[in-house]
Every structure is written in structure tokens, then in C-alpha cells.
Amino acid sequence: MQPVLELVDLHTEIALRHGVARPVGGVSLSVGKGETLGIVGESGCGKTMTALSIMRLLPPGGHITGGSILFGDTDLATLDEAGMRAIRGNRVGMIFQDPMTSLNPCMTIGDQVAETVLLHREATRTQARKRAEEVLDLVGLPDVKRRLDSYPHQLSGGMRQRVVIAMALACEPELLIADEPTTALDVTIQKQILRLIDDLRAQLGMAVILVTHDLGVIAGHSDRVAVMYAGKVVETSSTQDLFDNPRHPYTEALFRALPENVDPDRELYSIPGLPPDLSNPPSGCRFAARCGYATDGCRAEEPSLTGDGHPFACFHPLGPAEQATANPRTEPAPAENGSALLDVRSLVRDFRVSSNGVLRRASGTVSAVADVSFTVRAGETFGLVGESGCGKSTVGRLLVAEDTPTSGSVSFDGTEISTKSNRALRELRRDFQLMFQDPYASLDPRMRVRSILREPLAIQRRGSAPEQERAVAALLDEVGLPRAALEKYPHEFSGGQRQRIGLARALALRPRLIVADEPVSALDVSVQAQILNLMRALQREHDLTYVFISHDLSVIRYIATTIGVMYLGKLVEVGPAEQVYSAPAHPYTKGLIDAIPLADPLREHRKESAGVRGELPSALTPPSGCRFRTRCPLATDICAEQVPPMRRFSEQGQRAACHHPLKAPVPERMAG
Fold first, then answer.
1. Pairing verdict, β 36-40 and 224-229
2. Which of 312, 398, 411, 514 could pair with 343 as two cysteines, CB 3.0-4.6 Å apart?
3. Do 425 and 505 contact (CB within 8 A), yes or no?
4. So what's the pLDDT on residue 327?
């Protein structure tokens, strides 16, 4: 079968202020009609730059310097701009990584989808709008007629992603490039988006290139895989063969870094070192400096991609017997029998919603947090998990007194903090800190790292100026950043490095509690492993307590001692991490677990359940009784009439609020 797209020895360069970066260095790959090719690797390995090279949408200073991009009989690498405009968005569509930044905030959804049709088809505005409605309905956007006149900020993350997919599909392209289409989305929305792409591929007969750092996504949704490292393809094969028998040490290292492959009592494997600087790449094998199998020959000569069916670029390929296990942990996990440090009782947070009119009258109330109670012991990690919009981040802000509850209480080490004034909280704030989800947005772009880390010490008047300087330098050492980082600005760091800076800032006042809000949601597996290992090491060293907020149950299972599952403002299940994960009592918890993409093609395709069905209801008008009932396969009339009580399901403390639980509750005499 002739490929829809074929890259032959593609080279791309980007002119920098001080030199030239070569993010794509001789990439060759192909994808056929109706096939999905997965491109996987760490951040900075060249995946996105390869996709942007195909689309001829390289950043300023970027240009293709060699090779071919054969799209049928046309070489896109040499096509003039007018010819490329006729293909881009028409015969080749692209789903960009961040839907919020790729959508125009000043245009309605309908106009943005229709614009593609107006540009590439001889259509009137009425016809283009009708096509926009059709394609938005095709991608499963709820209430399409009303959403046509909505703006991007009025949609959820999953809805915005569907709109971006609709724009890419409006002209029925022959090739769809999906660049990290589910990054930072919760597992249920991720499952829906990936299944949607699979269905549309089959329905329209498209070729798909799926760019991702998530091996679980690759396992369930690609036919073949190309593994990229430092601008080059280092291994490629069918998906099943790659997962059964990875040959390149880098591919093996990516598998080893997955949290679901590691016992919670073991240290996560993280690939040592950093990817090379592509403005000055090393000679020989580019992975040699980080490879445990490298020899002098690897550092002197570059291996070529060779082999039939399963080519790889390595002088010392791995066999099945050489698959290594993760590093054993050298110190025990945090103790689980500490005293209560954080006590949350009947927490409620409602937000009043105003109309858009001149008078701004109140038009309703959003029930963000509804009667949530839990306890966090000193030295433990409490994992709070759930879909986007379930209230996790709101709870996080309430725990560190960044917001005031409508009712209920938050007590820290016996002192209620939820009603204290800012002045009264000043001393207490030293003991609890918030680690934000987006480190780039939370770091002042006009401040150097030195000032960012010193700021909390200066505000709290901790030590003299020289003492503060020494403390800042020590913080960098603790989070594994070089001293040279002190003089740099946030934009000069990678995502993982910025997350380390955010962690260092949270540690500056030596708190007892850190609330970490999605700290690894957008990081690739190797950087994620580094951050998780670092957080656990610092927890042991400083006797820290964490509340770790995430939508990723695999991460929560690894990092947490106790898991709390939230749904639409309610805590629906809580208990020991392994117990909740392996034997959930609530159907919603099981749905979240079923939606996790597994890094195993056979198990992924054999799943009986696709996860949680349907869309999250509005917190403005939550369902009566059990809030999960509108999406629950077990719901009956009682679920609509009565709020389910929280009952115990194990003697170890597993509790869930469900009228139709997945296992029998513990009898009251045992529970008492």
C-alpha cells in the first residue's frame, strides 16, 4: 500500500540568537491510509517539530534544510507557500496541543469552524455554518446549536478539544496530525477524545499521526510506533512488537519510568541526566551519556537505524532477558500512623453567579464543594483525585486559606484556619504552602530565580540578607538545579525545571504541609518520575505532609498513602491507596480506573469498560440525590431521591457514599 505521507531523511533547523538548533535530524517514517502512527518520546525529542515541519508551521527562524515530505506525489518540503496553504487545513489537518491558545478568543465557535470551510471550499456563509454544525455534531459536542455562538472560554477543556478536532476535520482531510491531543485532560475526557479520533479515522479512512509522551495512549490507539530521541528516530515497529520486545535502551527506559509498572514501595526509575543540547549535539549515539549499556564505541560512532520490520539504532540492543527492574527504594516510605495534622469537616464552598446584564443580578449558585470531610495525618500523602471540574483545586485553595469556605471548617494542627483574618494567618502561612499546577503561570516572568526564591523569606523576615542568599542556594541544591539557575528567568527553563523551581519556592519557609495541585500533569514520564522521586525524598528529609491533587490515578496510587475520590463537589470514596485502587467500592472510582490508558496493547484492547460515560453535569444545577446517578450504570430511583450516606467497606478505613456499592459494607458492629 502506498503511504499517504512519507518522510525521507528530514532535517529541520531553527536559527537562535547564539547558534542553530537542529530539532529534526534525519527523520524517516511513513503512515498509510486508515493507519495510526504513534510518535513517542520525552519533551524536546523533536516530536512536535516533526509535526510542525510537515505542516510547514515552524517557529520564527525555523526552516527545512534537507530531505523530503512526500504527500502523495507532492513534496511539501519544496512546495511554495500558496501551494502549502491549499493543502494545510484542507487535505492535512492538525490538532494542536493547547486548544485554548489555538482558538481565537474573540470569535465564536461556529465562526472558527466555518472559517476553514470558507477558505478551502466554494461555500457561502450559510453553507459553511451548516457544515460547522455538522462537524461539531460529528465530534460529539453537546447541544451543538447553542454552542455555535459560544466563545472558547465558555467551554470546558474537553469541549474545546472537540472544537479543535472539528476544525481539523471540517474539510475531511486525508491526513490528521494530533499533537498531544489529551495532555492535561483528565482520564475520562482523554478516553472520549482518543476514542473519537479512532472512530473518525475508521469512518473517514484518514491516516493519523498521534504525537504523545504517554505510552498508555500509544498502546491503545496506534498501529505502529516511532520512538524519537534528540531529533532522531531510534526505534520503530508495530505497537505490539514494541511493547513485547523493546530493543533500544531509551525505549526500555521510558517503560521503566511508568508509575503503574512500579510497586509503591520502590523508587520510580528516572532516566539519568538530560537530553542533549540540539544546538551542539554530541558525537556518536546521542543517548550514550544517559545509557547504562554505552561503550566508547557508542560515544565515537553514531548507530544507524537498521533492521527489517523492527529497526533500531543501537550497537547494544536489548533482548527479553535484559529487561531491568526499577531501582529499590533505599529508605522506607513515610509512616502512616502520625497524628492528625489537617482536619476538614463538612466543607462547603458555593460561588454566586451573576447575569451578564448591566445590573449584574445574581442568577444562581455554583456548588463547587459540598459537605466534604477528611483527615490527613502528619507525614502522609493524601491523594485527591477526580475529573476536571469536580472541586479538587477549590478544596486545595481552602486547605491553605487562599479561599474562605461558605460553611464548614479546616483545622491545621488543632487550630481552625478557615475563619482567621490575613493578619492572624501570617504566622501560620509559614507552615502550609501551595504548589501550583502551571509553574510558568505562577512564576513572575520579570523576576530571576534568585528573587523568586528569596521573596517569601523577605516577606516573612527570615534571616539577614546573607542568610537568605545561603538559604536560596541550598534550596536549588535540594531540588537538583545548578547554581547558575539563580540568574535566569522562568522562560529559560523546561517544564520539569520550572516545576522544581515551584517546589523550591514552596519549601522556602520549611512548611509542614504542601498542597500540590496537579504538579506533574503535563510532564513526560521520565521528568514525571524525577519530580515524584524528588517529592518523596524531600518528604522523608523534612517530615513533610502532602495533599497531592491529580486526575491521574496511576500517579496517585504511587505517591499517596490515602486516596480521596471527588465527584462534582462531593467526596464519594476515601481509604488506603492500594485498597481503593485494587478494590474500589464506588462505581465512579471504578470508572476512573477503567479509563486509565494501560501501557500494554493486549490489556488495553481487552478492557470491558471504557470508563465513565457521558458529560459531567453542571455544578450550577447538580443532580438531586446522588450527584453521580446521571452517569452511573447502577442507578435506580433511590439514587435520585436520597443522598447516599458514607459507609465503611473495610476495617482499614475505606469508606464510600453509594446506594449500590461494588462490594458489601462492613457490618456496623465491626465498623465500630
1. parallel
2. 411
3. no
4. 41
Using CA atoms, how far residue 45 sits from 49, 228, 229, 640, in Å, is 9, 6, 5, 50
Tens-digit pLDDT profile for residues 254-305:
998 887 766 666 778 888 887 888 888 899 999 999 998 999 999 999 999 9
Q: Tell me, what DSSP letter sits at residue 337?
A: -
pLDDT at 455: 93
Q: How many residues does the chain have?
A: 672
Instruction: Tell me if 514 sits within 8 A of 506, measured CB to CB.
Output: yes
Residue 565 has a CB neighbour count (10 Å cut-off) of 28
**319-353 burial code (b ≥16 CB/10 A, e <16):** eeeeeeebeebeeebbeeeeeebbbbeebbbbeee
Distance CA 556, CA 213 (A): 19
User: Of the candidates 546, 488, 482, 539, which has an alpha carbon nearest to the alpha carbon of residue 517?
Assistant: 546
Q: Is the dihedral of CA 187, 595, 216, 48 positive or negative?
A: negative
CA dihedral in degrees (639, 640, 641, 647; nearest 10)?
A: 30
Cα 626 to chain centroid distance, Å, stands at 29
Question: What cell does 260 get?
Answer: 503503574
Instruction: Name the 3-class secondary structure at 212.
Output: strand
Cα angle, residue 152 at apex, residues 525 and 141 outer, rounded to 5°: 80
Q: Are 214 and 194 in contact (CB under 8 A)?
A: no
Which residues make Cβ contacts (< 8 Å) with residue 273, sequence separation at least 6? 289, 290
Can you tell me the mean pLDDT for 124-136? Answer: 93
Largest CA distance in the chain: 79
Cell 461556529 belongs to 110
What does the block give as the cell for 582?
A: 485494587
